[in-house]
Amino acid sequence: MRTISDIAEEYEFLEGDERYRLLIELGRDLEEMPGALKTDATLVRGCSAQVWVYPTRGEGKLHFLADSNAAITKGIVALVIAAVQDKPATEVAEMDIDAALAPFDLKNQLSSNRTQGVPNMIALVQEHAARIAAG
Q: Can you tell me which family this protein belongs to (predicted)?
């Protein structure tokens, strides 16, 4: 997975439909999330599409699996995951993910329907991280 800064650098040079295509591409590049992990417990509430986020850990770092049933939303969750992927749980729990996503200006680039679930995606990622960091 590409880093959030690499994605932001590319995104900055794109316009309109090209930005949509980049988000769709990011969603396609996500690791496959097994169907068995797409449960009510991993479902992000408040999204217009179905979105699932599942944390795993190894070597002191968090690794997230995510998926959505909508292409753009899958790209948005891929952005959220890119900001936190393979970082220590304590760092993710305290991270300002909104600031990491600020260069993408999602609220002005996408419809409110598409972005309404972003705070819930961030909250779920940070809840998982805080729980894992606490042991």
A: Belongs to the SufE family.
Q: Long-range pairs for 10-15 at CB < 8 Å and ≥24 separation?
A: 11/103, 11/104, 12/103
Per DSSP, what are the bridge partners of residue 61?
A: 58
Cβ–Cβ under 8 Å, residues 47 and 91: no
Classify 56 as helix, strand or coil: strand
**Catalytic (active-site) positions:** 47
Please write the tens of the pLDDT for every residue from 5-35.
999 999 999 998 999 999 999 999 999 999 9
Range of the domain at 12: 4-34+43-134
Nearest Cα to Cα of residue 84 among 72, 67, 96: 96
